[in-house]
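User: Sequence in, structure out. Go.
Assistant: Echoing your sequence, followed by the structure tokens.
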Amino acid sequence: MSLLLQYGIIVSVWILSLLLILIIPRQKRRLAMVALFTTVLTIVEVLLVQYTDLIRYVRWNWFWSWATIFLTFLITRVFCVVYFGTMTRVEAAKQKNAASTTRS
């Protein structure tokens, strides 16, 4: 597999994880949904490995694919929470400061 294709797959998985995190509402089942989505992606990959010559594992197996995709989702979620949570707090503080200065 070419290096460019590998980077394309990594970026695609990151974008999918970002979209999934933004689409799934805040609920307790979010981790289960991420695990389910990761499992579906891994099953598709295993079928591609088994029935085509598109992917060839070298010292890799389905578990490592599942774990890396799952960790990608979790790292993306942490990034979104930290970045957007920080941005929300900054905007709230600006609004609070603007409201207090207009009252003075």
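User: And one key feature?
Assistant: The helical segments are 3-23, 30-51, 62-103.
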